[in-house]
What does this fold into?
Amino acid sequence: MRTSEQWFDYFRENLRINRINWSLPPTLTEQELHTVLHSMQAWQLGETSDGSNLIRAGRIYAAKINDPFYVSTLELFIKEEQKHGNNLGRFLDMIGQPRIKKNWGDTLFRKIRHFNTSMEFWTVTVITVENAAQLYYQSLKDATRCELLKEICTDILVDEAPHIRFQQERLEVIFNAKPPRTQRVTRLAYRFFYFSTILVVWFAHKRVFKAGGNNFSKYWRKMTLKYRKTIGMLKRANLAKPATVCTPVPLKVNHKLECHGQ
It folds into this structure.
């Protein structure tokens, strides 16, 4: 378990790294553009959230657990997500395609996020979306021969694995603070939310998933594996261990591509 300060140091260092060669020309074919454009525009919009609602929930939670570094770490986490959106937007600009301002999926999630002040719900949501993002960007990368777009996807994929670890560690702390009887019900709620959400993601972006070699059966199998490796692992937690005990572990920036379930 890493401290918020250690995660802060990681995100601060990682934000300084540029892995994309923007001198590469965008070389999407017409067929590739037809397949990925609408989905990529929608995903780019989703990556540009200012994170104000997440920060609001984070402040409430940080005050409750007396962790002054947590909010600052969340802010850097959000900046990294915004970097992904900015890079996708820059690519759209380069190929002469607009950045959309509205999408039904993004509108739905933003409305839900607006009324949420629970750090637990936020954490489960982020893990779910990040798991889907790993498979989405791998599919997008495999769906094109454009080297620039591949580098953009790789950069995002490198970031996503630590994002999931960051949120997973926090969810473990929140989950282990619950009594065992509540944990059983909570796991069912997590599972229902996760699989309901990934079903929506499939229908919104299935053309990209399919173009990347993932039919619905493969998608569902991979997302189920990701669930077991992230949220599903909570059932193995030692419930007798105090939830607030954290052993600091040094975190290094890892440039190796790591994807749960890949």
The domain at 4-236 is CATH 1.10.620.20 (Ribonucleotide Reductase, subunit A).
